[in-house]
Amino acid sequence: MELAPERAARKPEALASGVPQRLGDRVFSGVAKGAGIGILVVLAGVAIFLLIEAWPAITAPAERIPGGEGLVDYIAPLAFGTVLAAVLAAIIAVPFAVAIALFVSHYAPRRIAAGLGYVIDLLAAVPSVVYGLWGVSVLAPASRDINAWLADHVGFLPFFEGPASVTGRTMLVAGLVLAVMILPIITAIAREVFAQTPRAHEEAALALGATRWEMVRMAVLPFGRSAVISGSMLGLGRALGETMAVTIILSVSGIVTFNLISSSNPSTIAANIALDFPESSGIAINALIASGLVLFAITLAVNMAARAVINRREKKEGR
């Protein structure tokens, strides 16, 4: 009689550790663990490769680096242009992506929402070179008058101080093209999470007399805030590494400026590598790989920051 409580107390331990798992569970667990370890190995391998190949440029004297002013002066304008173009694209794309996701998930009729969601998802399948050609052929000529107006009327701002580019191939056009490219990524993530908002939360807000917008603001947006942040960071990472679209639109120049409508624009790391790598040799290749290492570090830092923000918010919300 006294052993029964002891057996009952030990039963959960037996279920947790003593009962053998099925073969399928063990195989799936091993595959999942191997995939996770494999990703870490690949990531570490890429970092080690970049560091080894970039080391000759890191240790080389300044006069041997392209430009003759040192590796930091060579990479800094490119890193600045990379961050500027990506941040500009995110600033433009995120509000539109959230608005589209809300329209598809809570405002549009079901038939229209399904078709619109399909069309937006198709934007992600368009090659980046097509976006670049569209930017050069359509957006750049169309932006010349707008650039001139901005320079004349709001030129006191450092972003539009001019002189306006006569070709329209500016950082502003590059940011717009990148915004269109990352729009489907952010929209898809936000739309799926907005659609999963608990129905009880929405009905409770409406029952208290809230309008549809007030319901969205009080129930849907707080529920999907983490998705918007993660989608924005994912889109930002895509914009940071974009190559062909930026290469077609911008010319390489080693300057640092916030002017978005001038003909002299900072280029990006990825575009510079694409343009210069085929004709480079020796220490110039190592310098390009060193700039790739900086891009790798920037992208990694952005993703780690996004993960930290999401984890902190989930802890506050008690998830």
Automatic annotation (TrEMBL):
Segments crossing the lipid bilayer: 35-58, 78-104, 116-134, 171-190, 243-263, 283-306
Keyword Transmembrane: yes
Gene Ontology cellular component list: plasma membrane
Keyword check for Cell inner membrane: no
Main location: membrane
Membrane topology: Multi-pass membrane protein
InterPro entries: MetI-like, MetI-like_sf, Phosphate_PstC, Phosphate_Transport_Permease
Domain ABC transmembrane type-1: 79-306
Gene Ontology biological-process annotations: phosphate ion transport
Coiled coil: none
GO molecular function: phosphate transmembrane transporter activity
Keywords: Cell membrane, Membrane, Phosphate transport, Transmembrane, Transmembrane helix, Transport
Subcellular location: Cell membrane
Function: Part of the binding-protein-dependent transport system for phosphate; probably responsible for the translocation of the substrate across the membrane.
Similarity comment: family membership: Belongs to the binding-protein-dependent transport system permease family. CysTW subfamily.
UniProt-listed NCBIfam families: phosphate_pstC (TIGR02138)
Name this polypeptide is given: Phosphate transport system permease protein
